[in-house]
Amino acid sequence: MASSAGAHGGGDNANANTTGTTGGGVQQTEEPTIEDLQRDIEHLKRKIAEERAKLCDKTTAQVSDALEPIQGLNIKVRRSLKGHNAKVLCLDWCSDKRHLVSSSQDGKLIVWDAFTTNKEHAVTMPTTWVMACAYGPSGNVVACGGLDNKVTVYPLTLDEDVATKKKTVGTHTSYMSCCLFPGSDNQVLTGSGDATCALWDVESGQVLQSFHGHSADVMSVDLAPGPNPNTFVSGSCDKMAFVWDMRTGNYVQYFEGHESDINAVKFHPSGDAIGTGSDDASCRLFDLRADREVAKYTKESILFGVNAIDFSTSGRILFAGYNDYAVNMWDTLKTHRIAMLYGHENRVSSLKCSPDGTAIATGSWDYSLKIWA
Amino acid sequence: MESTPSVVQQQRMEVDQLRREATMKRIPVSQAVEDIKRYAMDHMMQDHLIVGFASEKANPFREKTWSCEVL
């Protein structure tokens, strides 16, 4: 207790309060026990919850009451991408707004031309359940992994089989559930069933930073847009979302409220908030500066879990893919459902808006991907 | 993965972290949502999934009429 308070500069209210709970006398040299620390943690969490509760002066729907409702939407299936022979588990857009990479339960990775629906590369991984795949910012490299616990990077070249150039970059102690390139082809950020996230150097395969804090499987990560390139968010089966500082390895904020696993996290395009999707059949919006939930997207008729979410470029629409095969479109501000996209014949496992916001791609357990615009 | 911190280390880190969080400055929900609303208003006209395209030809995913491009 005393040592950690000293290291932190001491003197603020939180310190004064928590010191009070340990009872005064034993604080010079005694190392705090796990029980002491646990008590401090619970006390601080209660205090934070109280502070957050004070901020709820209005609901998001009240603030947005005078807004014009969204009308005249004309989103439909424009392309169907067929070629996987098993459940599609993940997809990502290339920065050229034209190509897509997808990964599947049968171990296949496919690179698509979404304009023509042609397959440009197909790679068979030595594993099943390739749960994650991501394009590098240059568009010349993809990363993937899954039940093999590894993140593997493939440079995309047209002259030879991409599988010959593969590079195993990192290994977790459990499955890899999600990955992304944070701003450069030289680094990969991964999330894993081992409850950690890790930042890897692609060239050397070294861990640059590891992120401990979740108490269960990490299911999803997303990078902050714009001026905070060192911030990312993770969502976990511990029902929490953490906001991390990539440079220090520490988390800066946590968000709670979901009643079951968080399967998807995504930064709002403003960078001020994060969206989440959960097995509790809800999506939520958490604001970083209010440090709390500001909206919840649910309906009594929606009973199934959410696997994937993304925002339209203005942040007004939240797209969410569900286990009941539907994609629901939520008005993030009026907090109601504005439309449903039907087309898949099984769970929607993955979903992403194209980089310029002209289309959304969905992947499903029905073995197909669809482009909606 | 590399060595994992011990339980006590992890808990200490968490206590330090929660102390920092406990003292952070927070804004009310109304103000946070006003900012999110303003962002949506400022970017709505470029949000093609909401406003569509000035002409269907501008949509890169319009239905395929590629026949002449094969030349």
UniProtKB/TrEMBL annotation, chain A:
Assigned keywords, A-Z: Repeat, Transducer, WD repeat
Highest taxon listed in the record's lineage: Eukaryota
Renumbered ranges of WD repeats: 81-122, 169-210, 211-254, 255-296, 306-331, 341-373
Annotated spans, Disordered: 1-33
Pfam family name, one: WD40_Gbeta
Listed InterPro entries: G-protein_beta_1-5 (IPR016346), WD40/YVTN_repeat-like_dom_sf (IPR015943), WD40_G-protein_beta-like (IPR001632), WD40_PAC1 (IPR020472), WD40_repeat_CS (IPR019775), WD40_repeat_dom_sf (IPR036322), WD40_rpt (IPR001680)
GO biological process per UniProt: signal transduction
Entry similarity comment: Belongs to the WD repeat G protein beta family.
Name the record gives this protein: Uncharacterized protein
Organism: Tigriopus californicus (Marine copepod)
UniProtKB/TrEMBL annotation, chain B:
Principal subcellular localisation of the protein: membrane
Start and end residues of each G protein gamma domain: 3-71
BP terms from Gene Ontology: G protein-coupled receptor signaling pathway
Pfam families in alphabetical order: G-gamma
Gene3D superfamilies recorded: Transducin (heterotrimeric G protein), gamma chain (4.10.260.10)
Membrane-protein topology: Lipid-anchor
CDD domains: GGL (cd00068)
Superkingdom of the organism of origin: Eukaryota
Keyword list, A-Z: Cell membrane, Lipoprotein, Membrane, Methylation, Prenylation, Transducer
Signal sequence interval, chain numbering: none
InterPro entries: G-protein_gamma (IPR001770), G-protein_gamma-like_dom (IPR015898), GGL_sf (IPR036284)
Subcellular location: Cell membrane
Family the UniProt entry places it in: Belongs to the G protein gamma family.
PANTHER family documented for this protein: GUANINE NUCLEOTIDE-BINDING PROTEIN GAMMA SUBUNIT
Protein's UniProt name: G protein gamma domain-containing protein
